[in-house]
Design brief:
By secondary structure, the protein is α+β, with helices and mostly antiparallel strands. 45% of the residues lie in helices and 15% in strands. Strand 1 and strand 2 form a beta hairpin.
Amino acid sequence: MSLESSGFGMWWTTTDDVSRKRILNLRAGDHLPADLALDLQFYGVSIVAAGVIWSEEDHDWVGLYEQPAEVVALLAGVSDDHPG
């Protein structure tokens, strides 16, 4: 399956630059921000909830989401292209 025909690929080509940069700024093991997780779910990307934490900034409980496989692969490719 090509990136363009995947849910992640459709999200990537239709989302704004800020959201794409937020994905690219994630490091391996970082949790996916809740708003991006929700956006990706709308495009059919499988998202796994890892838990919840209390956010002092939001004064509320916020979800923690694992990076979907498509994001992990993208970040690995970016890391390979730009070592160090």
